[in-house]
Amino acid sequence: MNFNQIICGDSTEVLSTFPKGCIDLVVTDPPYLGRYRDRYGRTLANDDNPEAVLSVYDEIFRVLKPDSYCITFYGWTAIGQFASAWAEAGFRSVGHIVWPKNYASKTGHTRVQHESAYVLAKGFPPKPNRPIDDVQRWEYTGNRAHPTEKAVSVMAPLVSGFSKPGDIVLDPFAGSGSTRLASLAAPMGRLDRPTRGRACEPGRVRGAFLRDLYLFASCSDEASSAPCPRKDPYSHPDATIQGPAGSARPQIPSQTGA
User: Fold this and answer.
1) What is the pLDDT of residues 102-125, one digit of tens each?
2) Domains plus CATH for the chain?
3) d(CA 88, CA 98)
């Protein structure tokens, strides 16, 4: 079994092949359903298609283990749609996290200077021994690998705060791969040997890290191919990418550009 495998495909379809209750934690950053376009003209597939994005939460709920967490970013302009999808899937809200910015990412009725995510619970998970603050430090990435790229330092406290050594972490909207890298960089460090496999197939990921990882380059979160000056974010030496037979690798922005 390859380490840190990324499965490329539609998250709803791929997750439907997973057994019920095999994931310990979900940390994800879906399209915000805001028809986003950045200064280079890059967009997000299905950012204007609520059904393609919100339907994934039903499968997220199903594959999560009982009494577990889903940490999800969301678009505040579509909070009604997101909240309805979460509730219909079976989740309840148990926390809210905000990342203040020292710049405005958008100006409309207000200057938008924050990002936010909900802490959703399936069942009644035990509270973390050391709960993280609900106001977190933001780091700007420059959005070079992805139009809405989150820094690894933003995702890392979510992974380490809501998972434990050996847990399986899922990100069904893989984007630039920040959740994967945050899982690999969890502060517990590395194991001396690969973790034991569990009955969670297909695409089981076993790695020499304390947190195992499932990641999907979902077609619900596939960036356009506008110029972008960064190396392929999937080129981590420990990673392999798997797609369904005949499928194409997700479009990664060109490495050319300013």
Assistant:
1) 999 889 999 999 999 999 999 999
2) 5-242 (3.40.50.150)
3) 24
